[in-house]
Please model this.
Amino acid sequence: MNNGYLTYDIAPHVEAFSTERNAELPYHAVQANQVHGCKIREVTDALVSREELKGVDALVTNVVGIAISVRTADCIPILLYDPVHRAIAAVHAGWRGTLQRISTKTIEVMHELYGTSACDLKAVIGPGIGPDSYQIGFEVADAFQKAGFPMEKILEDHGEITSESQNSMSGGLHLDLWLTNRLLLEEAGVCKENIHVAGICTYLNNDRFFSARREGVKCGRTINVIKMV
Model:
């Protein structure tokens, strides 16, 4: 694949990638009208529209040749592949979706529809805002604590927020969405060695990927795609 795409070597006969800034999709990919929720839909028609997928934040399919995707600009994209039952998923996990454990629920849907076992899954956690840049408020931290997340692992206090640290995102509470989603996958039964974390912070790599926190919510979006061929 040409420059302009971050590609993932998940498995033979699977194409998976994230578009970099201003790159065009090499082919059509199904996209949902995401709302930071945890609704999951199966895709069996490559021509289904975004309007028909309103309120959906994760897509699954077992149809070879259908590319499914999620749009991100700091949120965490998760791509899943079941090599045993030949099924895939694309998951949009911002802090709200992560809080609602959307990746866990997607795996449950794959099990119900295709017989997927979590231990067989290959997973990619793509570019998203990193822990050094993801400054959050006390209310978000409190929501994760009340939901039973291991705060000692996923949250760090970077000290007092000053005018300087506010601009650089260096102070205050910082949430590690990469690790949080990795832990959710492991908790669901995905093997550690089958989880690839890109480790690319969209906020710090604004020249390659869109960042809503840096650019504003009306910025462009990275398209994170997976397809069986």
About this structure: Residues 102-114 form the longest helix (13 residues). DSSP finds seven helices and 13 strands in the chain.
